Amino acid sequence: MAMKLPEILIAIVAGLTATPLLAAQESAPACHVGAYALADGSILDIGNAPDGKLRWRRTDGRTGLLTPGEGGDWRSTLGWTDRPDGNDVRFGACGDAAIDLHGVTGRRIDFDVRETRFASGDATLGGRLVLPRGGGKVPIVILVHGSEHDSARDFYALQRLFPAVGIGAFVYDKRGTGASGGRYTQDYLVLAEDAIAAAREARRLAGDRAGRIGYQAGSQGGWVAPLAAKIEPVDFVIVGFGLAVSPLDEEREAIAEGIRLGGYGPDVVAKALDFAEASIAILSSNFTAGFDRLEAARVRYKDEPWFRFVRGDVTHVFLQTPEAELRARGPALFAGIPLHHDPMPVLRNLAVPQLWALAADDLDAPSRETSRRLRQLIADGRPISLAVFPRTEHGIFEYEPGPDGERLSTRQPEPYFRMMADFARQGRIAGDYPQVDIARPRDDGSQRK
């Protein structure tokens, strides 16, 4: 459902806090965007961020926001907090590819890049193939979107981070966004067909350099990528913070998880689910009904001490937004979404090796039931590897409480990117990933936890 990337919700309610994939303003200095090899042997990625700022990322999950300062310096703040972290950056002039990260110098990495436009159904999509320099075969990861409206070509850091470690990446704008034509939709079958077209185009462009090809998908893409792989098999599928339940059950689980984390038991959860059912009625009617049900729940429970923990994936936004605005804007934002989509038949019958990475404390896409279902599929012999990251939220982000009680993302865990790269290369995870709860297939050559 659109219920997993807050960008869609931000489009409904102006002024909500920006999230990791929110689009940057056009004033961001694009000449500095790229992956850099530093003198200490590490890799630093510089990407776009909102309001003319930049964001740095490392392969070990550390990240910070860069704000222009005096004298050409860019001041860094930790993660999505406003706390200075000392990782200030200075760039060379546009075109000379130089960087200085708090005294460590580096140079931008050159990649083999091919821009393209390719057909998928009734749309022409804009894409980009990014390969490490050289002539040998490399694995290629097709980056499949969540529910955002922003250009993946402009804002996905993985299109550079994967090539920086020897893995190709193909990034394309979702239909109706960025450089892609067609009407924006959240129809999973249409989006799966787009992903298949992207994989074909990546293979065509890569030619003899194409090795293993598979999907990497976040959030809503966790429903799309397995479906695409079932229709036309690839070599692997990587899903981050996705779900093995329906979009409607996602909202129910998200409401229940928020109440539980607030310290309340099943009796309060049962009451709070009135909000979930009201939101589901609104979504199921395509924003033509259900608003009276939501208002009735608000009036009934607004003075209860647990009301402040009513979140859900869309309910908290519905509660803040005037009915007229929801009626006007909701249908386009949630266009085509298959609310009753059951992903389990695909997952039960998918022979393609999959890696699922889940956040243990995910409020937007609660992982409890998805983890249980995936563990059962592993026990049944399906080629699935599961990694549950403790103390992380949606996006596999570690977090800290903000002054208003909201979570502030700080970084991703060190093993996360390394695990995805291992899986793209080998189709399995066999390394050491400290403090991650891992379940593996019996036949992957590793000890199964």
TrEMBL record:
SUPFAM superfamilies linked: alpha/beta-Hydrolases
Any one Gene Ontology molecular-function term assigned to this protein's record: carboxylic ester hydrolase activity
Keywords from the UniProt entry: Signal
Source domain of life: Bacteria
Signal sequence bounds: 1-23
Protein name: Alpha/beta hydrolase
Source lineage: Bacteria, Pseudomonadati, Pseudomonadota, Alphaproteobacteria, Sphingomonadales
